Amino acid sequence: MRWLPLLVLLSACSDRTIGVRNTAPDAEITSHSDGEEIYQDVPTLFRGLVGDADQDPEGLEVRWFLGDVPVVECIDVDTQGVTECIMTLSPTDDRVTLEFSDGVANGSDTITVIPIPEPVPNTPPFCSFTSPEAGTLYGPNQSVALVGAVSDDQSLPEQLDATFTSDLDGDLGDVTPSPSGRVAYSASGLSSGEHEITLVVFDPEGERCIASVIIEIESGCGDGRVVAPELCDDGVNDGSYDGCLSDCSDFAPTCGDGTRQAAFEDCDDGVNAGLYGGCTSSCTLAARCGDGVT
User: Fold this and answer.
1) 107 and 25 Cβ atoms separated by less than 8 Å
2) Taking the alpha carbons of 270, 273, 274, 280 in that order, is the dihedral positive or negative?
3) How far are the Cα atoms of 18, 26, 27 from residue 22, in angstroms, in the given order?
4) For the chain, which residues make up each domain, given as ranges?
5) CATH code for 126-217?
6) pLDDT tens, position by position, 37-72
7) Beta-strand relationship, 144-151 and 126-131
8) Class of domain 23-116
9) 113, 96 in Cβ contact below 8 A?
10) Of residues 105, 104, 65, 103, the one with CA closest to residue 87
């Protein structure tokens, strides 16, 4: 039977072929997914996993690519098959590849990434007073021109919110900055005394800046506050009964001043203690002889 030796020979060749068959290695980029956005110009760690059924991972030849350019320093793999590579993407880099070989067969994995600019951290706006100068003294009821300058690295001046306040009178007014960053407000009717005027500016993200200036408003007759040398100031000062004289130098006619004002008083003895024969505190007649009351 001639065919028997040939069959034995073919069988032996088949056994030898099976014995040297190489299993294709496997690779996977595990740190990032396909289509992921990654900040450009920032060092980024990429991690991958490689494996081969025919040998330990440490014996594999590993290469990383950014686009078509190999990253020559990224060639290590540990006993678990983990390999890492730090890359810095440019705006045009959109492909990362992990490739390795066991000397006979190759394996690879490629992902497409989207380089994006790293967001710029929001910073507070800038603000300052250009007028008035600190320590400026204003007359009573004089309007005060409040002027400031505002700016922001991430927002237009018109997008900022600006408010002027006084530590004595509270909120004075809100203003919208001009395109050049100028803010202006005319404050009238400020109370007499020392004011800390504050400019508060918010950007769209809620960051703020604060600037302040100290000014002083002289006391004045008619501001409703009695400040020496004033004796009376009711804010009207029209000299009417029970009010104040127009120059704030004294009280207008009133109950208890010892002069009877016939239109308002029945009696005014300057004491108004309600004593017999005298006047009551409301300038009416106290009990007296002839009043018909025993």
Assistant:
1) yes
2) positive
3) 9, 12, 16
4) 23-116, 126-217
5) 2.60.40.10
6) 999 999 999 999 998 877 788 878 999 999 999 999
7) antiparallel
8) mainly beta
9) yes
10) 65
